[in-house]
Amino acid sequence: MNIPTPSIALLTRRRVISLFLEAWMKRNVETRSCRQTLTGHLNSVFVVTFSPKGDQVASGSHDKTLRLWNASTGSSRLDSGGHTEAVNSIKCSPKEDLIVSCSADNTLRLWDMETGALYCILRGHIHAVFSVAFSPKGDWIASGCGSGEVRLWKIESGEWQHVLLEHTSWVLCVAFSPERDMVASGGFDNTVRIW
Q1: CB neighbours of 141 closer than 8 A, spacing ≥ 6?
Q2: What is the C-alpha separation between 94 and 123, in angstroms, rounded?
Q3: CA-CA distance, 173 to 184, in Å (whole number)?
Q4: Residue with the larger pLDDT of the pair 109 and 34
């Protein structure tokens, strides 16, 4: 069997890229140099997430607000005060058009990433909502709440389509599989459920 060997140019290019990445990591991570300190929340920040492109950071706080920050400049583009209780989780859509937030006020809210406007409020949970996730195509949302239920929402209609009831306590995290054919949830009942 004849296995082709990489050319010297390819090996050199890989080594240069590898050295560059090592230098970048050393400068920014190992030296623990802080690039930005983002201030503006009035209480504890519970959750942060990067947009899929990495150019924005979203944060949610006990002060009931969601903020969207420019990751390079630190400027705040969105300061929403729509929730009436603490923001527990946030996720950016894979399409980078929406942000979903969930709260102890039992709601999920969808926000337009470009304008910061409230797109819609998703109601249905009867307990605090702790976790949210977008499907890989950004057309569904999964949410988990304090009653142990997982709800699946169709963004197009703004309505929940399915309620999954197996957890016996709070659902703390939810996730879609990359193929969008399964949902996983984890809870305070010490279980992970795959749907």
Answers
A1: 100, 108, 122, 132, 133, 134, 135, 152, 153, 155
A2: 22
A3: 8
A4: 109
Q: Give the CA distances from residue 145 to residues 60, 96, 99, 151, in Å, rounded to whole numbers and listed in that order.
A: 17, 25, 18, 9
For domain 45-194, the CATH superfamily is: YVTN repeat-like/Quinoprotein amine dehydrogenase (2.130.10.10)
19 vs 173, more confident: 173
Is the distance from CB of 109 to CB of 118 less than 8 angstroms? yes
In the chain, domain spans:
7-36, 45-194
CA distances from 91 to 24, 83, 124, 160, 164 (A): 27, 15, 19, 18, 21
Instruction: Evaluate whether 168 touches 185 at the Cβ level (below 8 Å).
Output: no
Alpha helices, H only, the chain: 8-25
Compute the distance between CA of residue 107 and CA of residue 119 in angstroms, rounded to an integer. Answer: 13
Q: Where are the alpha helices (DSSP H) in 6-136?
A: 8-25
Model confidence pTM above 0.70:
yes
| Span 91-131, pLDDT tens digits | 999 998 999 999 999 999 999 988 888 999 999 999 999 99
CA 186, chain centre distance (Å): 16
Rg of the chain in Å (alpha carbons): 20
